[in-house]
């Protein structure tokens, strides 16, 4: 051992002496020397030199005079005989501090000898069979442990710390180095470190020593072994070599994160970080070298990460560790340290080869609290390495990370013996671990992963992240590769397939070859169809970002190219006399054509009508359609593009110009790209209707919608499914009218054959002023508003679902804007809403529910009684399914009103609660559950304002929870209790004090006797809420606060 050279163990004579010394006698001598602490928290009290001098004299007197201390006197003499520096220091009366330190170290060495002798003795048998074994003979009691810790602190504080130069292991509060010669300081430092290293070899003494004083011990060993000669005068080279060996021995033995942290402290930081002297250059270099050695050890990277994060973010696993994981700056600092190659390493590749597997191991930490911190560090390190040295990072990080996926890709070279049917190439555990690791570091995902992962939540998240964060061209290319339209990504090996694992995961195995050609063709077509459907499902989550719309347009462009290629192939004649290469190329083109057609068809069926998110995408879609039409027309095949498709595409433009969206100047700049194509269609298409529509659209785009013909309006109405309202002319032309035009421009609009012209002319004729201008136009505007409101009321009964829903939402908007015309007929509007609530289409009845709730929240005094009466009255005296559904919809209206009223709902407390209680007695089980759910939310919002109705509510809940035959109703009753306790929180015991016992018994009954698992879960949640409320009252949190009292 390295420490043996510093302080070899005592011989056999001392061991015999140690056998005769009682363990308690040595501890008593330590307490006599240091003085007994005044209280339980006085272990770290400072020692006075005068008291130490007196204690040393008292100890010497007792060792000489009392017979019971003779054995300890002999053992101490043997110890000091082997350590002459300590013996000389113990007799030096000129330096009381050093003399006390030598005395303490001598007694600690005696204690170490006695503990070694006790541990070598045979263990006593157990007192009785089955009883716990007795403690080891060298076990210290709690009081003895405190005395040993005080002795170690005194030994380090008096014998080691004062002889360290400034900047070497200094701590705040430690004494300054004494003004003694360099040779004396070096000899004393060596004597103290030798004794402490020998003490550290014993586990009982080494644990508290290394846990509390490792930094100072390392500082002393660094100074003795590597420090400048001026601080080591009088030491031979052999002694310095022994110190270096002891340093390595201590670093190898101690807990590695602790060693890393202490080395970082010794190394120090910038001068502004600490008020102490900065570490000297030689010590900083030495600590850097030692830290690099810690890093290059097995599992050294984890030790370095733990040491750094423990030193900066608190203990791992606590709240400080979570805060450190959130602080990306600390993770960046650790990543830069780990990504930098130390000077001791032979080459950068050797360093990456050694460290990268340990970085990947950080992703597999099982502890949930520490895993977040380690994964963040690993991800940041991986990114840093990938940016600085991408080739080495790909070789040593990315490829090992993706090894299970790359092993089964079409680019992998699989041995012949591994291609036998049923051979598992990637096990379930390997595949799951790979996917989880990639999900953790999804920032560095690359293309080969995309077509290899089956549908699962982590894979989907990774794919969506990649598609959203990549450049749009890259995302489109990857999506093409996923369905086989491009070779931008690797696919699964043709002889491999995914299989369900025994634990619910996925494994990759070699599939059995199929001899039947029809079966093989069917499997191939089914696999391609599965790829297309999976891709469409993935795109359904990318509509908001616009990726789905861009890919749909990209497929339409590919369809245009396919049509052009077919035309070129047809012009070349038959392929009968072609070579084999040409036949393969022709087959590949045909396969691509079928894939494009299949993909476009699936996208048209599956992607919703909200696939386009901006005007530019609509313009590109229309441009692709027009371009296909122009290509077909130029080749004399006018029927290639159906007239209906072309009309639909131009109808989209007409709808945008007709007010479906609010167009800006930048939007018209985008639409102007269609002008050349529209002009070509208007000149070459054989259908006169399409010619006229294209020409009119071109004029409308050029005039920014100021000029709109009947053809454009008709096309817009066919797309929107409804007529453009009377305000369309004003909305379309107002931005382009002159302020002084007055009423002349609307007459110009009538000349353009606008659909609203006859209605407006009729209104003006009724008022007797067909061409009124100036102030006389006000009655016309008022009548126009009334006509628009009347049209909305009529549209609310339109058989077309979109028209009816749009009218209901427009009425709701008028109520929100407090339109005076709408407020005058609020009863009629309420009747419209209530009748539409009974509609079977969700688009209609949800719009009606929203409108009724909005109207009721604006005028609760007038509307809420009507809703309560409708909710409580059965339809025609019967209780059929349709009536129950309607009442549930009215319950949703009432709950929206409750949320909108907020604290004002207390005014309507009784009628609302009674209505829901009556609903809880309905024969329909679904309505009973709905009424209880509404009751629970209402009670949660009322909180302290429940009042005396709590008795009625509790009685109803207990009766239903115990006697109702339907499980969903009992479940809803228990859920009401949960909501009630959550709403009251800590005040539940005050508000529910009269019924709290009954509710508690109800919950216990449900937990014990309820067969429905969901109801039991709700009851357990309610009991937890109740337990939390009661504990907060019985054990209130202690708040420490300062109070300043001014005395008179």
Automatic annotation (TrEMBL):
Residues 790-904, 995-1028 form the RNA polymerase II assembly factor Rtp1 C-terminal domain. InterPro entries: ARM-like, ARM-type_fold, HEAT_TANGO6, Rtp1_C1, Rtp1_C2, TANGO6/Rtp1, TANGO6_N. Residues 757-766 have a biased composition (Basic and acidic residues). PANTHER family: TRANSPORT AND GOLGI ORGANIZATION PROTEIN 6 FAMILY MEMBER, TRANSPORT AND GOLGI ORGANIZATION PROTEIN 6 HOMOLOG. Residues 22-294 form the TANGO6 N-terminal domain. Coiled coil: none annotated. It comes from Pavo cristatus. Residues 124-143, 723-781 are annotated as: Disordered. Belongs to the Tango6 family. This is Transport and golgi organization 6 homolog. It holds the Pfam family RTP1_C1. Residues 295-453, 457-545 form the TANGO6 HEAT repeat domain. One of its GO terms (biological process) is protein secretion. The lineage of its organism: Eukaryota, Metazoa, Chordata, Craniata, Vertebrata. Transmembrane segments: none annotated.
């Amino acid at each position: 051992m390295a420490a043996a050279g510093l302080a070899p163990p005592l011989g056999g004579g001392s061991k015999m002496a140690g056998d005769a010394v009682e363990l308690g006698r040595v501890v008593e001598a330590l307490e006599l020397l240091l003085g007994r602490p005044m209280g339980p928290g006085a272990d770290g009290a400072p020692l006075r030199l005068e008291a130490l001098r007196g204690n040393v004299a008292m100890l010497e007197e007792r060792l000489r005079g009392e017979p019971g201390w003779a054995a300890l006197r002999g053992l101490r003499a043997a110890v000091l005989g082997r350590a002459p520096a300590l013996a000389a220091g113990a007799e030096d009366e000129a330096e009381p501090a050093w003399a006390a330190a030598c005395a303490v170290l001598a007694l600690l060495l005696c204690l170490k000898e006695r503990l070694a002798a006790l541990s070598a003795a045979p263990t006593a048998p157990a007192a009785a069979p089955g009883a716990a074994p007795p403690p080891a003979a060298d076990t210290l009691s709690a009081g003895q442990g405190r005395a040993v810790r005080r002795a170690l602190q005194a030994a380090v504080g008096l014998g080691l710390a004062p002889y360290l130069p400034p900047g070497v292991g200094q701590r705040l509060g430690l004494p300054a180095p004494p003004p003694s010669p360099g040779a004396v300081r070096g000899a004393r430092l060596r004597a103290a470190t030798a004794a402490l290293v020998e003490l550290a070899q014993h586990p009982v003494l080494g644990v508290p020593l290394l846990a509390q004083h490792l930094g100072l011990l390392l500082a002393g060993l660094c100074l003795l072994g590597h420090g400048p000669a001026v601080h080591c005068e009088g030491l031979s080279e052999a002694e310095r070599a022994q110190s270096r060996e002891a340093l390595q021995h201590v670093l190898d033995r101690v807990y590695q994160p602790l060693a890393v942290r202490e080395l970082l402290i010794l190394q120090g930081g910038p001068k502004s970080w600490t008020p102490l002297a900065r570490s000297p250059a030689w010590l900083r270099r030495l600590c850097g070298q030692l830290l690099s050695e810690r890093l290059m050890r097995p599992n050294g990277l984890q030790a370095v990460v733990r040491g750094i994060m423990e030193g900066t973010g608190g203990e791992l696993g606590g709240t400080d560790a979570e805060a450190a994981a959130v602080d990306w700056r600390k993770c960046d600092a650790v990543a830069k340290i780990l990504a930098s190659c130390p000077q001791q390493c032979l080459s950068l590749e050797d360093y990456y080869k050694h460290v990268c597997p340990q970085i990947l191991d950080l992703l597999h930490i099982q502890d949930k609290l520490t895993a977040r911190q380690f994964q963040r560090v690993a991800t940041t390190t991986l990114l840093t390495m990938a940016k600085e040295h991408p080739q080495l990072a790909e070789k040593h990080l990315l490829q090992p990370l993706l090894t299970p996926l790359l092993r089964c890709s079409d680019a992998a070279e699989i041995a012949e013996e591994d291609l036998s049917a049923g051979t598992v190439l990637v096990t379930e555990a390997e595949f799951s671990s790979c996917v989880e690791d990639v999900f953790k570091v999804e920032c560095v995902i690359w293309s080969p992963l995309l077509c290899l992962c089956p549908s699962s939540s982590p894979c989907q998240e990774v794919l969506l992240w990649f598609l959203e964060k990549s450049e749009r061209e890259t995302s489109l290319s990857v999506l093409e590769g996923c369905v086989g339209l491009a070779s931008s990504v690797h696919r699964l090996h043709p002889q491999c397939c995914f299989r369900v694992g025994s634990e619910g995961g996925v494994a990759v195995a070699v599939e059995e070859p199929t001899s039947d050609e029809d079966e093989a063709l069917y499997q191939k077509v089914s696999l391609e169809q599965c790829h297309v459907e999976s891709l469409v499902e993935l795109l359904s989550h990318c509509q908001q970002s616009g990726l789905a719309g861009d890919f749909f347009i990209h497929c339409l462009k590919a369809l245009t190219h396919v049509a052009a290629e077919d035309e070129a192939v047809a012009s070349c004649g038959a392929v009968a006399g072609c070579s084999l290469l040409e036949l393969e190329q022709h087959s590949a083109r045909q396969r691509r054509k079928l894939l494009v057609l299949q993909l476009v068809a699936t996208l048209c069926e599956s992607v919703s009508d909200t696939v386009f998110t901006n005007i530019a995408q609509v313009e590109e879609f229309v441009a692709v359609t027009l371009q296909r039409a122009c290509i077909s027309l130029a080749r004399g095949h006018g029927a290639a593009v159906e007239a209906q498709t072309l009309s639909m595409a131009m109808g989209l433009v007409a709808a945008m110009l007709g007010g479906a969206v609010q167009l800006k100047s930048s939007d018209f700049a985008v639409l102007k790209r269609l002008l050349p194509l529209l002009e070509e269609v208007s000149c070459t298409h054989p259908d006169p209707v399409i010619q006229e529509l294209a020409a009119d659209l071109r004029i409308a785009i050029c005039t920014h919608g100021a000029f709109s013909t009947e053809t454009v309006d008709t096309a817009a109405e066919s797309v929107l499914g409804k007529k453009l309202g009377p305000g369309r002319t004003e909305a379309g032309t107002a931005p382009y009218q002159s302020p002084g035009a007055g009423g002349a421009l609307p007459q110009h609009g009538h000349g353009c054959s606008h659909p609203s012209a006859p209605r407006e002319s009729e209104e003006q004729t009724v008022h007797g002023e067909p061409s009124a201008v100036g102030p006389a136009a006000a009655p016309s505007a008022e009548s126009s508003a009334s006509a628009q409101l009347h049209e909305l009321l009529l549209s609310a009964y339109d058989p077309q679902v979109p028209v009816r829903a749009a009218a209901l939402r427009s009425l709701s908007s008028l109520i929100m804007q407090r339109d005076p015309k709408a407020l005058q007929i609020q009863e009629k509007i309420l009747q419209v809403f209530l009748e539409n609530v009974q509609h079977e289409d969700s688009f209609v009845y949800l719009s009606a529910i929203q409108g009724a709730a909005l109207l009721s929240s604006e005028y609760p005094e007038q509307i809420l009684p009507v809703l309560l009466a409708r909710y409580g009255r059965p339809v025609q005296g019967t209780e059929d399914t349709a009536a129950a559904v309607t009442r549930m919809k009215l319950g949703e209206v009432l709950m929206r009103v409750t949320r909108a009223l907020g604290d004002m709902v207390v005014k309507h407390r009784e009628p609302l609660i009674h209505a829901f209680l009556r609903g809880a007695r309905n024969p329909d089980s679904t309505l009973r559950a709905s009424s209880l759910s509404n009751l629970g939310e209402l009670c949660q919002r009322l909180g302290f304002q429940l009042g005396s109705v709590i008795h009625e509510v509790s009685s109803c809940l207990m009766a239903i929870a115990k006697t109702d035959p339907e499980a969903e109703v009992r479940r809803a009753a228990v859920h009401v209790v949960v909501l009630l306790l959550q709403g009251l929180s800590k005040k539940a015991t005050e508000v529910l004090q009269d019924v709290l016992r009954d509710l508690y018994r109800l919950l216990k009954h449900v937990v014990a006797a309820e067969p429905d698992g969901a109801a039991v879960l709700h009851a357990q949640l309610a009991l937890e809420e109740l337990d939390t409320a009661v504990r907060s009252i019985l054990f209130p949190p202690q708040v420490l606060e300062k109070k300043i009292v001014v005395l008179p």
